[in-house]
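One such given next:
>
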Amino acid sequence: MWLLSMLVPLLRLYLCGIKVLLYQMFNRTFEMPALPKQKGRVAIVTGGTRGMGFETARHLASLGMHVIIAGNEPEEGAAAVSRINEECYEGKAEFVFVDLTSLKSVRHFVQKFRDRSLPLHVLINNAGTMLVPETWTEDGFEFHFCLNYLSHFLLTNMLLDLLKTSGREGRCSRIINMASATHYAGEINLEDLNKRVVYSSHGAYCQSKLALVLFTYYLQEQLAAGGFSVTVNAVDPGMVDTALYDNLWTLAQMMKKPVAGILFRTPAEGASISVYAAAASEMEGVGGCYLYNGQKTQSSDLSYDSELQTKLWKKSCELVGLQA
């Protein structure tokens, strides 16, 4: 039973990966349409110091946005900001520290941002980690669950009023959640979100990505019901050659290296779906979508379970100390 609990999530995750690679083998990355200038708009991109996050921040700044890169590596952040500001004359970038494995740090980041009285038009919950060995955060949460999902849940909710007041009809604020095809392999056990019964890093990662998709749909429904000019979408970048794969098993690492250069997307290609969701005219007023390769795509059947969406929302509020 224990062995099955370990093997099943592993096999399901790698099966998802094979399906994505087969798709990428026969399908080109979607062509980004011309994007409108974004002068005067403010964006926060978590995990924006490298990889897809950096490419997302760079592209948004080139469109004229003021981009706040939120991350936990000050030296990397300074280098990223310097590079973006040297290249982009329309917008600008800056780095602000946040540790997404600490709810206290998330709250401190939000307070620092609020103190500046800036508007907020785009929030891209990009930061993530994958296949980390069994690790618990200072708040007692499983590492993937906290960094990939729960901290972004808290961050989004604490910034939601700013997003609401910054958006207007015809010029909505936009929230983008970084999903993954691995959510198709994900399962949610509300009684064991921290995977304490049987730990599987593969299962934990898939769960965190499914949680983000469930969160996306529930929040969009609430915002639409309230008539707010804020949209929420989940984006899937495909398989991208970034440091996310550094924790693969040695054999998987050896198999990945020759494949990555041929079939994996570059960080810039992976970032294109986030940039599209954040800035494209075609996405104005459009929310509650799962976007893959520039198309609205059907996510997993489980992600549309409205009862599960509601239960996860309430449980997440309880865990971070928010009113449901």
About this structure: DSSP finds nine helices and eight strands in the chain.
